[in-house]
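Aim 2, interim progress: modelling of the fe (ii) ion-bound target.
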Amino acid sequence: MQNPNAWRQDTEYLNIVDDLLAHDEVQKLALYPQHHFSNRLQHSISVSYHSYLIAKKIGADEVATARAGLLHDMFYYDWRVTKFAEGSHAYVHPRIALKNARKITTISPKEEDIIVKHMFGATIALPKYRESWIVSLVDDFAAVDEYAIPKAYLTYFKWQENIARKMARVFA
Ligand SMILES: [Fe+2]
Ligand SMILES: [Fe+2]
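Predicted structure of the complex, ligand included:
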């Protein structure tokens, strides 16, 4: 993703998420590595902000998208090490994130769907809202992007346009 700090200058975006960013529970996501070149806070902000831009572009609910996008990976363990009897990391961590998100803010049914279904593809429950599809797609791309930097990758505008175009087609 180009200019990973663009969100810092976007006051409209910041107004939507600043109460969440002010929480220690959100800030401490920075202590956990996510992909090769990012920590979990950087990853969460990246997914939130790019999902927000796409939601705005296609006329979806950018507030729910930005907020749930920011909280979608709110868990505090190293997924490479910690294993759960209840199921795979892909199944368990969205549910843990939802529980943690509820401790710091009110979560709407749409935001719940965004958080719980963000691993669609690895899990089978179908996202119910287009906002859930956006976050799930952006999360997939972010994983590749954060892993691949600085190897060749699609430019930010290209992939954002691609996702927006696909979404517009699906929900036309
Ligand atoms: Fe996740
Ligand atoms: Fe994620």
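The two ends are 27 Å apart (CA to CA). The pocket of fe (ii) ion (ligand 1) is lined by residues 72-73, 93, 118-119 (CB under 6 Å).
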